[in-house]
Amino acid sequence: MDLLECPICLFLMCEPATMSCGHSFCRRCLGNSLPSRCPACKERFKQKDTKNIKNNVLLFSVVEKCCPEETRMKCNILEKLKTSEYTEALRIVDEAIQLAPADVSLKLWRAEASVGLTRFSEALKDLEELCYLRPNWTEGFFRKGNVLLEMGFQTEALIQFHRCLKLQSDFSPAKSQIKKILEAEGMSVPEEVPRILQVVSEYIKEPCPPITSLSPAAPTHSQTHPQGCPRGPKEEEVDRRDSEAGSKVKHGTSTECCLSLCQAVSFLPTAEDDEEMMMMRKEDRQSRGSCSLDRGDSLSVLTVSDFECPLCIRLFYEPVTTPCGHTFCRTCLERSLDHNLRCPLCKQPLQEVSSLLPYFKNRKYNPTVLLQEIVSRLFPLQLAERKLVYEAEMAELSNLTKDIPIFVCTVAYPGVPCPLHIFEPRYRLMMRRCMETGTKKFGMCSYEHGKGFADYGCMLEIHSLELLPDGRSYVDTVGGSRFRVLKRGQRDGYHTADIEYLEDHKVEGLELEVLQCLHDSVYEQAQDWYTRLNTRIREQITRQYGPMPDKDSDIQASNNGPAWCWWLLSVLQLDPAYQTTVLSLASLKDRLGHLRLVLEYFSQS
């Protein structure tokens, strides 16, 4: 399929719009006959979302640049149809067909103008040809059914709506028309499509009233197509089979009963015949390649500058399109939304758009597939360079010793939970980068006047992150390794640092025995203090910090020492400067000495 063709109607995209799944379609194809799922990725669509989706500005300019005359002409026709100027629209279409007889999409516009002028026979002729050339285009058969219904051929219209449901079982407009026709006959129609078809089968067994001759339901094919292309033997076989069915449908006298729907449906191709016919027509259309429009060379007019992000002024990488129709690199848009939940270009509020709510909640915004395909096809080298730049940035952000992100807030401890409420734009960016790089880690330091943050801190690992629709987030983290700051820096508004990790000095022999005795003594002292707290306070401590950890069998197993020491420090809520001092100690003996003094003070008070 041509890159610039709509996946639904297979014509050149007119007023392209991009859905939340990242696939783009004609705006008209996203109208009343919107499919329940994306034809490409099967993601479920919501009818209300299409009301907020604007034309994709970049795609519109791409189509206009590649096919200027065709785009301008079709936009003119569409404008006339919107304002019900059907005569003028028909005149423009007829002129366009004279200039471009191979463009079958013009027949669609002419059929719509003919319907507006109640010239149903002319509209039916164009729709017949479209349905022949697009045998899997559901909307074409639906339009044809509506025209037949306007002409009073209810049975023949039902055949077309039946074909729609065969092609696409969730095509709700055809389902609604069938229900409308059958309910007008006093029948109760279920909601499930298989049940609807079953009810139809029962209904069509009844005889129908006599009719006069029927207007042609199938076009009479000459030895050449309207496009002026010679017909092949396979096409003649398809025409023969179509004409056999058509001869059964038509009646020449008023005394003959009209064909029942049961009989009419039997003339529709079976699944095997349908597949065979579609394959034959596909092969036949391929053999007539010279008769179809070739837009392959039209993409050559595009340049790299046509695909530059308006925020970073670089080639798009993972381009995403907002409901207002503007396109940005994913990371560029996310950084902009950290500061303001509006489109960076038109300033439309984006948090009010229902289709974006899942994005604001999960930060999963699908790239615009068509733009990715165009860029990868036309500019593979530039895209490869752009990808290398992005990967280099991610690799730099993944380093856990150089330029690690520093969250300046409080003192964190190894193994102790540290829940955070993220609302500042710089820290929103920090959290997102930690998640994207896969490290899920950052440093936590307390504030220190004159330096910006303390010389010692603790790494935090993200366990869960809950995004809110307004961009804020709740982050559950747990303390990891301690570190000492070697060099301070900044990146995009937040602090960074080069660090070295701290480990407790190990002791052996007699020193270890003395250390073990001190450890057991201070642990019993801490337990005694904790048990003497009233029940309400203990419950609050347990909810926030968890229960007091047990003694470790090996007090030197961890590089950070026993977990209960850090738990106790977090519970005691000491002065941040004193907490940082204890955090920086690489001697378990010194740390236990500080804890003993603090516990004695608290016990006395």
TrEMBL record:
<dbReference type="InterPro" id="IPR003111">
    <property type="entry name" value="Lon_prtase_N"/>
</dbReference>
<dbReference type="Pfam" id="PF13445">
    <property type="entry name" value="zf-RING_UBOX"/>
</dbReference>
<keyword id="KW-0862">Zinc</keyword>
<feature type="region of interest" description="Disordered">
    <location>
        <begin position="211"/>
        <end position="250"/>
    </location>
</feature>
<feature type="domain" description="RING-type">
    <location>
        <begin position="6"/>
        <end position="42"/>
    </location>
</feature>
<dbReference type="GO" id="GO:0005737">
    <property type="term" value="C:cytoplasm"/>
</dbReference>
<keyword id="KW-0479">Metal-binding</keyword>
<dbReference type="GO" id="GO:0008270">
    <property type="term" value="F:zinc ion binding"/>
</dbReference>
<dbReference type="InterPro" id="IPR046336">
    <property type="entry name" value="Lon_prtase_N_sf"/>
</dbReference>
<dbReference type="Pfam" id="PF02190">
    <property type="entry name" value="LON_substr_bdg"/>
</dbReference>
<dbReference type="InterPro" id="IPR013083">
    <property type="entry name" value="Znf_RING/FYVE/PHD"/>
</dbReference>
<dbReference type="GO" id="GO:0061630">
    <property type="term" value="F:ubiquitin protein ligase activity"/>
</dbReference>
<dbReference type="Pfam" id="PF13923">
    <property type="entry name" value="zf-C3HC4_2"/>
</dbReference>
<dbReference type="InterPro" id="IPR011990">
    <property type="entry name" value="TPR-like_helical_dom_sf"/>
</dbReference>
<feature type="compositionally biased region" description="Polar residues">
    <location>
        <begin position="212"/>
        <end position="226"/>
    </location>
</feature>
<feature type="domain" description="RING-type">
    <location>
        <begin position="309"/>
        <end position="347"/>
    </location>
</feature>
<dbReference type="InterPro" id="IPR017907">
    <property type="entry name" value="Znf_RING_CS"/>
</dbReference>
<keyword id="KW-0863">Zinc-finger</keyword>
<feature type="compositionally biased region" description="Basic and acidic residues">
    <location>
        <begin position="232"/>
        <end position="247"/>
    </location>
</feature>
<feature type="domain" description="Lon N-terminal">
    <location>
        <begin position="394"/>
        <end position="603"/>
    </location>
</feature>
<protein>
    <recommendedName>
        <fullName>LON peptidase N-terminal domain and ring finger 1</fullName>
    </recommendedName>
</protein>
<dbReference type="InterPro" id="IPR027370">
    <property type="entry name" value="Znf-RING_euk"/>
</dbReference>
<dbReference type="InterPro" id="IPR015947">
    <property type="entry name" value="PUA-like_sf"/>
</dbReference>
<dbReference type="InterPro" id="IPR001841">
    <property type="entry name" value="Znf_RING"/>
</dbReference>
